[in-house]
Write a structure and sequence with these properties.
Blueprint (H helix, E strand, L loop, with lengths): L11 H4 L6 E2 L3 E10 L3 E10 L4 E5 L12 H7 L8 H4 E5 L2 E4 L7 H9 L6 H4 L7 E4 L6 E4 L4 H12 L22 H4 L32 H11 L1
Antiparallel strand pairs: 1-2, 2-3, 2-5, 3-4, 5-6, 7-8
Length: 233
């Protein structure tokens, strides 16, 4: 089976000695990490998708809420001194040893995707992606407020709200909200406006991991900086 059929397959031999392996219908998850000489090990969970996407949820501290990081963003978040070499700096545990991703089979789908786009075309331009509705929580009342992401302007409003550590209901750009307004019913929140599935939970067929609609060259956040740099590369 190959990735063009939408199926991801690693043999038992390939995964046998890798620590923390979990199989999912849509991705493979393993324990990973990146070591800084100053801060020590930052540990995370690497998800490997059959379409070549790589996504890391950081677990460097109990209170860290960094998730859906690109490998480059995780590398920088860890404080690694020699950044921009994530294939060699991010490791997984094999037989008790830290082994760079570049020396494991975990990058084979990533490398296949890169090979298909090596003619200079931008992957985000060659596939149709969707931006489902997302929610931002008020820092005052903790109620989730819906953001529609149908245009670049709407994506920017959500992006900036998510980055604002003091965002409140009163800052909502769509409605005149206060913390007194009720939160959407749970039965309504499951409908996320995805064109493929109204109750999309975030599958890789529907959710965009970065494109020119939701990433911004004038933004200095790590996510936008990584995207802009990769597009220029």
């Amino acid at each position: 089976m190959d990735m063009d059929c939408g199926v991801m397959e690693f043999s038992e031999e390939e995964l046998m000695d890798i620590s923390g392996v979990k199989r999912n219908e849509d991705f493979l998850e393993v324990t990973c990490g990146c070591t800084s000489h100053r801060y020590g090990d930052a540990v995370g969970r690497l998800r490997v998708f059959s379409n070549g996407e790589l996504e890391i949820t950081c677990e460097c501290t109990p209170g860290c809420d960094e998730d859906k990081l690109t490998p480059a963003a995780f590398e920088k978040h860890s404080g690694r001194e020699t950044a921009r070499k994530w294939k060699n700096n991010i490791w997984v545990m094999i037989d008790g040893e830290k082994v760079p991703l570049s020396k494991t089979p975990l990058l084979k789908y990533y490398n296949k995707a890169a090979a298909r786009t090596s003619n200079g075309s931008n992957r985000s331009q060659n596939r149709q992606v969707f931006h489902r509705d997302e929610f931002v929580r008020c820092t005052s009342c903790n109620k989730g407020r819906r953001f529609r992401l149908r245009s670049k302007e709407e994506c920017r409003l959500h992006h900036d709200a998510l980055a604002d550590p003091n965002w409140t209901c009163a800052d909502s750009p769509f409605d005149k909200l206060t913390c007194e307004n009720d939160e959407e019913r749970a039965s309504r929140r499951v409908y996320r406006g995805c064109a493929r599935s109204a109750t999309c939970k975030g599958c890789t067929s529907c959710v965009c991991f970065g494109c020119e609609t939701c990433r911004f060259s004038d933004c200095n956040c790590q996510t936008c900086t990584d995207f802009t740099r990769n597009v220029k590369a």
